[in-house]
Amino acid sequence: MRRAPLTVAAIAMSLVLAPAAEAKPRKVLTDPKGDYPAAGADVVSATFDTVKKTKLVVTIEFAGAPSTPVPFAYQLRFTSDENCNWRGNYFGETFGSSGGCSTDDANPPTVTVKGNTLVYTMAAKGALKPGTELSLIAVSSSPGGALAGAPGGDAAATDMTYVVGS
User: In three state form, how does the secondary structure of 88-135 look?
Assistant: First the structure.
């Protein structure tokens, strides 16, 4: 009879000491594959993830490998409930940003090309700290290295939101 209370106590203690599970990446944006003729600029999806509550990682998938160096420019945009209108432009091997975020909040992220994706990684702090809701999420590409979102590229936007750290 004494074993049962010890077993219950041991299970309860293991639940208290177990690390909290990381949230899974969440696809917040999708766009039809093949709606733009250049696969490396054809936006397919955008997935948001918060890693260990310290990094916001946005993975943008294209129908083909993104073009590097430029014949295309790429842009990720969103607004946060912290009055941050974030815009990040990727031009093949350089990054430029604009918007209402302070330079230590979200700029500059690292942008890497992995297969058919562009991966933006930025600190989850300041205007992008855990608990911040991101909305007006949009991704675009444009030919000729012009500012992404210019006529002639592919664009996708969503009404979905993402809460940093969720």
Answer: EEECCCCEEEEECCCHHHHCCCEEEEECCEEEEEEECCHHHCCCCEEE
Please, what are the domains in the chain? 22-163 (2.60.40.1190)
Q: In this predicted model, what pLDDT tens digit does every residue of 97-134 receive, in sequence order? A: 555 565 555 557 788 889 999 998 888 888 888 999 99
Q: Are 77 and 86 in contact (CB under 8 A)?
A: yes
Say whether the peptide bond before residue 108 is cis (omega within 30 degrees of 0): yes
Q: Would you say residue 16 has pLDDT above 80?
A: no
Indicate yes or no: pTM above 0.85: no
Which phi and psi angles does 92 have, rounded to 5°?
Answer: 85, -65
Measured CA distances, 124 to 3, 37, 58, 104, 138 (Å): 46, 35, 12, 11, 19
